[in-house]
Amino acid sequence: MSDAPLDNLTDIATLRSQARRHIERGAVTAGYSADRDKVLKLLNEALATEMVCVLRYRRHHFMARGIHGQNVGAEFLIHSNEEQGHADLLATRIVQLGGEPDFSPDNLTERSHAEYIPGNTLLQMIQENLVAERIAIDSYRDMVRYLGEQDPTTSDLLKQILAVEEQHADELADLLVGMPNLQV
């Protein structure tokens, strides 16, 4: 065990007192040091990005054709479902922070970091999904850097999602290997 001083820890009486103040804020305690409004805005942008990705992957699942269409389409469906899981995690965290998840379709693509580009061929679909994953990767990295240690729970959540987005990008890059540039 470390003999490091405990000077940086809040004493028990203070913890108890602070916990009783503003209990309606739920998980957002006096120790929350991030700019909550900014974090909620970022999380809602991430939510919009995930929803756009869900919809694009879902379309590509149904539109995948050609000799590779069935296998690639199945991969698109898996990714769509995983992106929906990310959206659910983000929405849950938004509520935990006292916000409201914005699922409004009216401006979904404006809030999304990724674009909704349908793609006409299997190759274009893979490429557009890969571009979107690369955008998500950089967006999540930026958010993690922004949060630093101010909101470790949100940072950890974003890191978990980031790891899956990197896996998606790797899988999509693998699909491009040997993919003929056919108009299917």
Kindly list the characteristics that best describe this protein.
single chain, 0% strand, 6 helices, 184 residues, mainly alpha, Ferritin, elongated
Architecture overview:
The chain is an all-alpha fold. It has a single domain, classed as Ferritin, core subunit, four-helix bundle (Ferritin). The chain contains six helices and no strands. It has helices at residues 12-20, 36-63, 69-96, 108-111, 122-147, 152-176. α2 (36-63) runs antiparallel to α3 (69-96), α3 runs antiparallel to α6 (152-176) and α5 (122-147) packs antiparallel against α6. The termini are far apart. The model has no long low-confidence stretch (mean pLDDT 90).
Identify the CATH class.
Mainly Alpha
Shape: elongated
**What would you say the CATH architecture is?**
Up-down Bundle
Number of helices: 6
Q: What's the end-to-end separation, in Å?
A: 64 Å
What average pLDDT do the residues reach?
90
Supply the number of structural domains.
1
Spatial extent as radius of gyration = 20 Å
Proportion in helices: 55-70%
Structural class: mainly alpha
- At the fold tier of CATH, the topology name is Ferritin
- Number of strand elements: 0
